[in-house]
């Protein structure tokens, strides 16, 4: 499938770079500065001391407008504040048979994208731990990754199978979900909980678990996020809740989240998309969320110090 990766940051650069290495036909929609960087330096993925340079094909929005052939697959890997701009930019890349898969965290983007691209859209979740570094390279902090995709109505179609085959890259688990909306909510509960704990503790899940009352704090924070999901009609199954409970209280765990990594590196965070939206839904459904609110306040204060423009 001819694939367009939208945004060559921590997610798009990593997934797209691995797809190129696996021999897929991939272009990267990037802004002019990133295009220049990728042409000069190539895309670099760094794991520990190992750095791999990958020759990639960047394309800017102006050049994309000239494209006559739509892409088969478009992977959206920008942050929410860039979504409306890229939705305009990809118009010429999306034809009647194009499939779009978003990897953004949270749920707000789904409504926006469905309104614009309707049936072209699949749901998606991605679990990797990567970040752009100061050289513009992509650092992977934990090995492997998981991708879940699915039709929003839960049906099993040939196009979803084809996308899954295209995304099958080494060290990645790729699964087709019969309930991708539920899977996205589950990931949202996870990322909000891990993001809140690790941002407030300024450390890893393991660091927080080792603090006095750390495990209890993590348990109650998970309870808040899971209760909002349940009140919104997307309650976690008992095994899913138990697995998350283990994940967020794991002693010795090196897990962080993109929220806390960005907090630590002085970059603006996606607080509104990951925590703000969940808090708003908590208020709307009468679920108290004091720990999520405390984390959001910390991250909003950080954003105010580190951004000149609001996130959304
Ligand atoms: N990092 C992670 O481990 C994970 C992140 N996610 C989610 O994935 C999404 C993307 O995050 P992440 O990759 O970390 O973010 P990054 O900031 O690393 O990457 C976003 C990229 O989007 C690019 N971009 C911004 N505007 C445009 C535009 N108009 N056209 C083309 N490119 C553009 C930026 O490029 P530039 O500014 O250089 O132009 C940047 O390289 C987020 O919603 C995040 O929550 C999901 C799973 C894991
Ligand atoms: C899976 C996880 C928690 C990895 O960092 C993530 O999605 C994120 O940080 O945004």
Keywords:
N-(1-d-carboxylethyl)-l-norvaline Dehydrogenase, domain 2; pantothenate biosynthesis; KPA_reductase; binds NADPH dihydro-nicotinamide-adenine-dinucleotide phosphate; binds ketopantoate; 21% strand; five-stranded mixed beta sheet; 2 domains; Rossmann fold
What is the strand and helix layout of this fold?
Elements: E1 3-6, H1 10-21, E2 26-29, H2 32-41, E3 43-47, E4 50-54, E5 58-59, H3 61-65, E6 71-76, H4 83-89, E7 94-102, H5 108-117, E8 122-132, E9 138-151, H6 158-167, E10 172-176, H7 180-201, H8 205-209, H9 214-231, H10 238-248, H11 258-264, H12 271-285, H13 290-306
Parallel strand pairs: 1-2, 1-6, 2-5, 3-9, 6-7, 9-10
Antiparallel strand pairs: 3-4, 8-9
The structure holds NADPH dihydro-nicotinamide-adenine-dinucleotide phosphate and ketopantoate (KPL).
NADPH dihydro-nicotinamide-adenine-dinucleotide phosphate (NDP) is lined by residues 6-12, 29-31, 33-34, 77-79, 82, 85-86, 103-105, 126, 128-132, 258, 270.
EC number: 1.1.1.169
GO molecular function, one term: 2-dehydropantoate 2-reductase activity
Family: Belongs to the ketopantoate reductase family.
